[in-house]
Each structure stands twice: as structure tokens, then as C-alpha cells.
Design goal:
The protein is α+β, with helices and mostly antiparallel strands. About 40% of the residues lie in helices and about 20% in strands. The structure holds zinc ion (ZN) (2 copies). One zinc ion (ZN) binds near residues 29 and 63.
Length: about 180
């Protein structure tokens, strides 16, 4: 079990980074910015607004490059659509989470009609939320698996930030862009 958890965490982890050139709005220098790690951001995310986690600066004048990175993320990813495999996974989770309460209602209805629904049956109500959590984890795992593959054969996806609520990745081997939702 702990082995499984370890594998899960490994799969879910993504590498933060930034390896696309930016033009500094202060000194006009165009280059790959200096990457100083990343910081957590807890802003509300709406529509197509970008969220940058990487801390970036201009290699020439050391200006903070967050605004430039935000504009670049929008430019790169706004027309990028979520891959079909990811879309069908999202569809499945909608069906799953909508289907669960319906299934429950059907079970209760049937139980009352058939006469086996008594106080003890309510224990099964307590079990259901326990089932949903692992299913949600599994779903996230299957989405994460999409960024372990690339046409170039050497996938190395860097997480560049969020556009709205979708995750923006770029394969640093071949430059392929990948936009995912979970
Ligand atoms: Zn500069
Ligand atoms: Zn690639």
C-alpha cells in the first residue's frame, strides 16, 4: 500500500519551471528569464486569467518578470485546447459524481418498497462518501498520466502556470504544449 502511495505521489508531482524566452519591459532584453524557484499562490481563478507560480527575473536588469510571464502564458495557451483523452476523463467524473446520488436514491427507494430498508441500511450511507474520495484520487491520477507521454519519446513537462483552472505544461525536449484539467 505504501508503495502504491509512493507511486501515486510520484505520478502526481509536477516539475515547476520556465524555459521560454521573455522580453523585459524595462530594458528590452529578450532571453530566458532567471528562475528562482516557485511560490504558492492562493488567488481565486476565473475565466482565462493566468496564474504564475515561478519566480522569474530579467537576466540583464534583474526586474521581476511576473507580468511578462503572465502575458506569455496567455499568448501560448489561450488557443490550446484540452486533449480529447482529458475531456473524456472529465466527462466520466461528471457522470460519476452526478450518478452517485441518483444511485443512492434508487437504492433507498427500492429498499423501502422491498421492505429491507431499516435503520441498519443507513450505515451504507456513511460508506458512500468513503468511496468517492478514492475515486477522485484515481481520476486525478489518470489525468496526470497524460503528461507522462509525448510524441518526442522523451517527455519532460514543465509546469508553467494556470490559465483559468487549467494546468499549462510545456515539454522542454520538443516544445509541445499541453493543457490539462482535473
Ligand atoms: Zn531587463
Ligand atoms: Zn516532447
Amino acid at each position: 500500500m505504501s508503495n502504491l502511495l509512493h507511486k501515486y505521489r510520484q505520478q502526481m508531482q509536477h516539475e515547476h519551471g520556465w524555459d521560454v524566452e521573455l522580453t523585459c519591459s524595462d530594458c528590452g532584453h529578450t532571453a530566458r528569464p532567471v528562475y528562482h524557484g516557485w511560490k504558492p499562490v492562493s488567488a481565486m481563478r476565473f475565466g482565462q486569467s493566468p496564474t504564475i507560480y515561478a519566480i522569474l527575473s530579467c537576466p540583464q536588469c534583474h526586474k521581476n518578470m511576473q507580468a511578462e510571464a503572465e502575458a506569455k502564458l496567455v499568448e501560448l495557451f489561450q488557443l490550446e485546447s484540452i486533449p480529447p483523452q482529458n475531456k473524456s476523463l472529465l466527462m466520466q467524473s461528471v457522470l460519476l459524481f452526478a450518478g452517485m446520488p441518483l444511485l443512492l436514491l434508487a437504492m433507498i427507494g427500492w429498499g423501502i418498497l422491498a421492505g429491507w430498508w431499516d435503520a441498519k441500511a443507513f450505515i451504507s450511507l456513511a460508506i458512500l462518501p468513503g468511496l468517492v474520495a478514492p475515486l477522485a484520487l484515481l481520476q486525478n491520477y489518470r489525468v496526470a498520466r497524460l503528461r507522462n507521454q509525448c510524441d518526442c519519446g522523451e517527455p519532460r513537462y514543465l509546469f508553467m502556470g494556470l490559465l483559468g483552472r487549467s494546468y499549462c505544461y510545456r515539454c522542454s525536449t520538443c516544445g509541445r504544449l499541453l493543457r490539462l484539467r482535473d
